[in-house]
Structures are given as structure tokens and as C-alpha cells.
Amino acid sequence: MRVESSAERRSSERQSASRSLRFEVPQQIDSARQKRASWGGHSARANAKAMSRRQCKSARKSKDCMIPGCVKGARSRGLCKRHGGGKRCTFSGCARSDQGGGFCIAHGGGKRCATEGCKNSAQSRGRCKSHGGGKRCRAEGCAKSSQGGGFCRGHGAGRASKVKTANILF
């Protein structure tokens, strides 16, 4: 004959107590739950599947590039963009990556600066760096483009210890 331990006895008591605490859900509440679960005419299972596809990239399992030492995510063929994954420029003999429209930047792909006559690539706000696109220097009164750390070269970008702090806004 088997003797129950005190831990097993407590576990079985908890299970029997939880069984006795179950109650019937009123019909109104149950139908409200079904309405909430059904979204856009789809079942709760279909909605859960759709939500899992919408997870942020860090939550999804992504494959890394197969090149040893590379930690970037693979685009296609097991390779990152740098090592040949993703779409390629369709210009004859070019192996660079596609930047939009089927071409690399050199062959006309990607967005161009909105300033008339400028053929440079747009950084932000539809303009290249020389026409106001991209991040600007954080120093007061400076309109040059940021080169690193939020500052232009004249205000300390690239220099670790010699930063001009007289006109810097914080």
C-alpha cells in the first residue's frame, strides 16, 4: 500500500478545491467574449496567427548571415545584404545591392535630392546632406551636417577629447 506524502496531499487538496470553485459563465458575458475574440469576421485562432506575424523583428527568430563572423540578419540565400543577400542591381555587370527601382545608387536607384539640378541621394526630408537633408550639427547656430556624435567636424566630430563646448546646446 502506497502512503501519500504531505506535498502530494496538499497538491490533491488544491486541485479538488479549484474544481469546486468553478462556476458557470453567464450567457451575456460569454457572448461578449466571443464578439471580442472575433475581429473582422475572423476566428480568434486566425487573429492570433496574424498577430504573431506582426511581432517586432527582435521578437522573431531571424537567421544570421552564413559568413563566419558576420552577425547581420540574412536577407536571401542565407546571406546578409553586404555578402550578397537581398535584391541586386539589375544594371549589366553590377553586383551592388538594389536601393529601390531595381538599381543601386550609382545606376539611378533610391530617392534623389529634391533640389533642382542635384543628382545626389536624398538623406532625409527629401534632400541630400549639402541641401539640408540628414542630421544637423547640435552646436548653436551651426547648420552643417552631423558627422558623428551629433556634431560637425568643426565642433568635434571624430575627436574624442577636444570638443568645443562653448556654443553647444543641451
From TrEMBL:
Transmembrane segments: none annotated. Signal peptide: none annotated. It comes from the Eukaryota. Residues 65-85, 86-109, 110-133, 134-156 form the WRKY19-like zinc finger domain. Pfam families: Zf_WRKY19. Residues 1-13 have a biased composition (Basic and acidic residues). InterPro entries: Znf_WRKY19. Residues 1-53 are annotated as: Disordered. This is WRKY19-like zinc finger domain-containing protein. It comes from Hyaloperonospora arabidopsidis (strain Emoy2) (Downy mildew agent).
